[in-house]
Amino acid sequence: MLVNFLLVGFGAGLGAILRYGISVLVKSKWKTNFPYATFFINITGSFLLGFVVSSALGPGWQLFLGTGFMGGYTTFSTFKLESMELKWKTNYRVLFSYMGLTYIFGLLAAFSGILMGV
């Protein structure tokens, strides 16, 4: 039982570190109103989680990668916060593009990951 908690915790820490690194890199390269870093992270995370849950990985790997790593890597809360910031700035074109593209491409990425993992 303790091993499962350690797998999830270690995976989450690694996922959060990668998310932070990608955010810093993307934000330093592209100065724009569109939150490309979170968009990229959540789309790649959707694909990877779809792949992990549909693959033949054992339960330990599922906990480490699926629950832990992907839980630390993807960020639904940042997506919502950035959406609200775009609303407060009345940047509706970017807001609706961001929300729509995230949902559409997130679903497509998850579906593609599931197909690749089977």
From TrEMBL:
Catalytic activity: fluoride(in) = fluoride(out)
Gene name in the database record: crcB
Family classification: Belongs to the fluoride channel Fluc/FEX (TC 1.A.43) family.
Subcellular location: Cell membrane
One GO MF term attached to the UniProt entry: fluoride channel activity
Binding site for Na(+): 71, 74
Function: Fluoride-specific ion channel. Important for reducing fluoride concentration in the cell, thus reducing its toxicity.
InterPro entries: FluC
Protein's name in the database: Fluoride-specific ion channel FluC
Keyword Amino-acid biosynthesis: no
Major localization listed first in the record, in broad terms: membrane
A cellular component annotation (GO) from this entry: plasma membrane
Residues spanning the membrane: 6-22, 34-57, 63-82, 94-116
Keyword Transport recorded: yes
Organism of origin: Listeria farberi
Membrane topology: Multi-pass membrane protein
Keywords: Cell membrane, Ion channel, Ion transport, Membrane, Metal-binding, Sodium, Transmembrane, Transmembrane helix, Transport
Regulation of its function: Na(+) is not transported, but it plays an essential structural role and its presence is essential for fluoride channel function.
BP-aspect Gene Ontology terms: cellular detoxification of fluoride
